[in-house]
Amino acid sequence: MAALSSPLRVCRGILKELRAIQGPDYKRSLAYNYIMEQFRKNKVTGERYCRAQHESNHDSHTYLCLLASTRTHMALHELYHSKGEHSTKSAAAMVGLRLPTQPGGKGWEK
Amino acid sequence: MAPARLAGHGSRLIAVRAMVSVGVYGEGGRGPGGPPTFETPSIPPQFSLPGAKLPEKYVDFEQQNARFPLADRVHLACKPLADWRGLRKALWGISFCSSLLWCYGGLYEINLDRRKLKTPGGKLFTVPNEALAIAVATEWDAQRDTLKFYTMHLSTLCNTALDNPTQRNKDQMITAALKFLETDTVCYRVDEPNALVELQKNEWDPVLHWMEKRYDVTIGSSSSILGPEIPNATKDTFRQHLTSYNFWSLTGLEYVITQLKSVVLSMGMIDRHLTVEQAVLLSRLEEEYQIGFWGNVEWAHDYDMYELRARTAAGALFVHLASESSTVKRKLMQD
């Protein structure tokens, strides 16, 4: 299948996601340290086709996919599925109407 | 001085982070060769009033946590977690600091502030792998006002593997996975429309051939309602292969197979032949075809696709991390 994109792009993507999760001081997090350590450790190899390098590249893609798609999924959920229904009052207000009021209340209401 | 590796990150609950004491699981003191334990002084109650001044020995905490005014921080540190930040945040949905704890058996635990994480079954949450523990801690960190468990896929998988609520053993899981082979998505083809037939042939056949070549088996594809006939030799080969995975990896693998509805695509992804995006695309091939024809509905199609990607990625990562072990071999410099 198609070749994986370069480790640098994946690394930057993962760091972007970590920054979105952890805030401005993401560099002090455990995940940041671990990711950077892994990327640095697996950089140098004497092999032409290094299977371990391909494996860790694939793993980094997988992790990037996990972080990015969780975030997008949550964003879509917030956007489309989280708000529930309009109340009667706001539904009426959408067309410029107000709910009828009966001074003294209806007979069966408190 | 806060231990850089073990006492977590982030500045949200700085004072409490400073009070996370790292202990060794199940032991009173320091085990031989374990990580260093740090004694953190507990702040006595007379400093819990706002405006109090902390004595000298807390000064280095002050320098690290210079962002927060001292009085508030001390006040916060002594209040119970439940009413800190007010009850307007749901559950105990305050921001917490997750950190790892390396315990003596080589297993990792997750600490949320000062509490140890437990599985829903009540057991202590332990993982054998540091990378997996860090990923789970990051998942917890991503929670904001409320805890959304449906986004914490790795935690769910770890809980399932630890608790085993349905009491399954390895053989049952392998049998279930092989039963899925008979109704594999990739083997079920349609007869019409022609464009879809072509698409299925072009996209699914290469994966099928790769699978057949890699495992030296025959898996046909058919367009009848009964599906392909899988010979027993194929099943035996797969059974032998799957037996080599440990229980945790099998949990993850079964999860991935259930999500993708295909054994072939799952194995292709686990063997790193396909990326997660490609596997999800191939699994949803007919849906993508229909989207191309009728149009995309973001709140349904994209929503499902991202959820599927997240779950599949979590499952794949879980399998890889549960089955790997890494060693570092250094090349000797030759003079």
UniProtKB/TrEMBL annotation, chain A:
It comes from the Eukaryota. CDD domains: Complex1_LYR_FMC1. It holds the Pfam family Complex1_LYR_2. GO terms for cellular component: mitochondrion. InterPro entries: FMC1_homologue. PANTHER family: PROTEIN FMC1 HOMOLOG (PTHR31716). Belongs to the FMC1 family. Plays a role in the assembly/stability of the mitochondrial membrane ATP synthase (F(1)F(0) ATP synthase or Complex V). This is Protein FMC1 homolog.
UniProtKB/TrEMBL annotation, chain B:
InterPro entries: ATP12_ATP_synth-F1-assembly, ATP12_ATP_synth-F1-assembly_N, ATP12_ortho_dom_sf. Keywords: Chaperone, Mitochondrion, Transit peptide. It is found in: Mitochondrion. One of its GO terms (cellular component) is mitochondrion. It holds the Pfam family ATP12. Signal peptide: none annotated. One of its GO terms (biological process) is mitochondrial proton-transporting ATP synthase complex assembly. Belongs to the ATP12 family. This is ATP synthase mitochondrial F1 complex assembly factor 2. It comes from Gasterosteus aculeatus aculeatus (three-spined stickleback).
